[in-house]
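Bug #2210: C-alpha cell dump truncated for Glycine cleavage H-protein?
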Amino acid sequence: MAGKHLKKKDNLWILFNGKEYCVGLTKEAQDELGEVTFANLPKEGKTYKAGDSLIEVEAEKAVNEFVSPLSGTISSVNEKINENIAILNDEDEMNAWILSFKGVDPEEFAAL
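Reproduced locally. Full output below:
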C-alpha cells in the first residue's frame, strides 16, 4: 500500500490512500511485541470513536490492546491475518495492514 499521507500514533500507522484510512502495526510495535501469535480483529461495518478499544494482539512478549486512532466505520479487515498470523510480523510494516476506515473526518486525521 503506497501513499503519501502517512501518520503514526500509539504504535499504529495510518495511511490515507485517497479513499480509505488503512491501519496497521508499526515496526516498533512488532519489535516490542515479538512474534504475534493471535489477533482479535474488529468486524467490518462496526463504527468506532477515537480512543475506543480496537484490536487485541497476543504475542510472545505481551498481550497488547490498541485503541482506535480515528473515528469512523470499518470498511475492510485483512482476513488473511486469520489464515496466516505471520503477516503481522512482516519486516515491511506496510504489509502488516489490519483494517481500513471510511467516514473519517479529514481534520481528525490531519490532527494526528
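Output looks complete on our side. DSSP finds three helices and nine strands in the chain. Marking as cannot-reproduce; reopen if the truncation happens again.
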